[in-house]
Amino acid sequence: MHKRFDEYTHAVAQYVRHATGKEKANLRKELEDHMADHAQALLDGGFPEDHAYRVAVESMGDPAEVGKALNKEYPLRWLVLSRLFLVLALLTTGLLLQVFPGGLYNSMIARTDPVHSGFHSANLDENQLTYTDIKAEFPNGDILWVYATAVTWDDTYGYTGHIYTSSYNKNPLRDPLYTTYALTYTLKGTEEAFLHAGGGGGSSYGAAYMRQSFDGLPMGSTLLAHYDRHGTSFTIEIPLPWEEVEVP
Amino acid sequence: MKTQRTRKQKTLRWAVIFLLLTVLAIHSHALCLTSGQSIRAVESLYGLESTELIAEKGDFTLSENQNTLLLVQHRPFHSPLWNVNGSQLQVQTKPDHPVCAIISFRWNSEDPDMRYHLAGTLDLEGAHSVRAYCTPDTEYNGTPLTLTAEVETTAQGRPYFWSLTILPVGSYVIPQHLDVLDDEGNILTTTEISWQ
Questions:
Q1: CA separation for the pair A149, A164 (Å, rounded)
Q2: ipTM given for this complex
Q3: Which residue in A has a C-alpha nearest to residue B17's C-alpha?
Q4: Residues of chain B contacting residue A205, judged by C-beta atoms under 8 Å apart
Q5: Contact check, Cβ <8 Å, B3/A99
């Protein structure tokens, strides 16, 4: 770039106060191109180089007046509004980021591979589990998946039935609200007697895991899980793998 | 003129992005601009049918549908990090009884007081007020509370009661029973209370 052009555009840019740095750079480039075209035309017409560049600059006019005139082309209100909406958009994005991505991974694991989620209650070896596909859907779209069951036997408690559940919402961006705590349990055929369960579990955003163990079950019994809240009720049947039980 | 259009275009672009994000935030209940949207957020959270507003007191709303009574505190922002249930004071399944009563209390470290809501709906002729109380055998757990509320009627004719009692921080026993009284103080019926 010719030194004269640089000095001129620099002087003009000083008066374009409302332009951002990027806009000033673009403006200077535009002015330089314009002067370069003019100078080239003069050179092509046979004028000496120094004369051509000087005339090209002088024909642009006083840099202060040109700068002040160009400054009106950069109304401040649009810049302020633009920045305001940018900040608001970033704040809203921040709000949404807290809601959405946190549970996505956990939710996907809960619906595909709960045993290896890190929250699976490993009270029994994996080879003692019978994998099942029993699912219940709650009114808010939460899914409770009974992904495994087991039956064990010992001298103290007799037969103990274990159920392993993962909870997630159909919408992978949502946290589940309902877990096995929303259910009551009975034995099929003796629905009036509620069962008390021990167990444990864990949860993180997007998923919750529970194990429930029911001691003293009659041989061959089937669990029923009941939901009855807020005008919605259902029952799911959970068969236990009695054929797998090992009695020492 | 080209430069000016660019600034306008940038402004419009960010305005559209902001509006779309806001719509998404409202749709996902991350942002609740009104108390009605807070109610919708809790309904969505629990998967409830739409509830109708019974009464509103400051930030709090009482609403119901056929099966459920909701006591909700309006908060503009809902997110898991700030406890998505933060706005929900009580979600109560209606019992097979003419009275559905809930008690909810809230306390936080920034507030020197504890706030007890006694609210509910009832379908009982002659009901004038309600009185919530503890059974005597609970005294060893703290100071037994007795809460009262007048029965009011909405513009649509729906009877309800709702009182807010503010007490200094302490150890209180939450009432478990509720009497519905007529205007002479006679007990019309008694019911159990669920509380949170």
A1: 6
A2: 0.73
A3: A89
A4: 80
A5: no
